[in-house]
From TrEMBL:
GO terms for molecular function: cobalamin binding; metal ion binding. It comes from Natronosporangium hydrolyticum. Residues 14-152 form the B12-binding domain. It comes from the Bacteria. This is Cobalamin-dependent protein. SUPFAM superfamilies: Cobalamin (vitamin B12)-binding domain.
Length: 152
């Protein structure tokens, strides 16, 4: 073993993540950003792209069950569409416990109010990461806290 090999950090946890927009949202660079961030953390990412209807998100989660679902929206309608997406995922047998988060600019004025965030959590989101000074750090810590997948 060389000195370089000895100094390498421990491998990051390996998770299968789905990154998805919501039904109305056409923005894409937010999704690319999240994909790159998750890949840097050692995740394998399926990026479903923009304008994903809730039923399509559910179908993709059944097709290849993920360890983490990351919803992103920035067009201002993410709260409404996100709520529908979270409810659709959580109403599916087999998807009731998969870690699921949502973030971005979820309201028409950027952020939603606390009632909106609470509604997303009540619908089954594990966390809401709206734009702010610590959103990315908090998201990073959330992902790092997830257990490594049992099988590849
Ligand atoms: C480019 C752009 C477009 C392009 C998108 C092209 C494309 N292929 O993506 C086009 C022209 C299509 C577009 C359309 C619209 N847009 Co636009 N757009 C932008 C713009 C200028 C840049 C977005 C971008 O690419 N940013 C780069 C990425 C990397 O960053 P980001 O999107 O900000 O995402 C960051 C965070 O939000 C966060 N994040 C996002 N999701 C998540 C999820 C999690 C879990 C976490 C942790 C973090 C996170 O991480 C990212 C990196 O920090 C922004 C304004 C701006 N300067 O940001 C407006 C903006 C997003 N658009 C806006 C609006 C209103 C629209 C339209 C409704 C306009 C209209 N009337 O038609 C439409 C909506 C179309 C639709 N159906 O969705 C508003 C949204 C307002 C709000 N939410 O408060 C913005 C903010 C402009 C503004 N200031 O008003 N847009």
């Amino acid at each position: 073993m060389t000195a370089t090999e000895r100094s390498l950090p421990e491998p990051e946890p390996w998770l299968a993540a789905v990154v998805s927009s919501v039904a109305s949202d056409a923005h894409t660079w937010n999704l690319v950003f999240l994909q790159l961030l998750l890949e840097e953390l050692g995740c394998r990412v399926r990026n479903l792209g923009p304008c994903v209807p809730a039923r399509e998100l559910v179908a993709e989660c059944h097709r290849e069950p993920p360890d983490l679902v990351v919803l992103s929206s920035v067009n201002g309608h993410g709260y409404r569409d996100g709520l529908a997406a979270v409810r659709a995922v959580r109403s599916e047998p087999g998807l009731t416990t998969v870690p699921l988060v949502i973030g971005g600019k979820l309201g028409v004025a950027g952020r939603v109010d606390s009632a909106g965030r609470e509604a997303l959590i009540a619908a089954g989101a594990d966390a809401v990461f709206e734009d702010g000074i610590d959103a990315i750090t908090s998201f990073y810590q959330f992902v790092r806290s997830l257990p490594e997948r049992a099988t590849t």
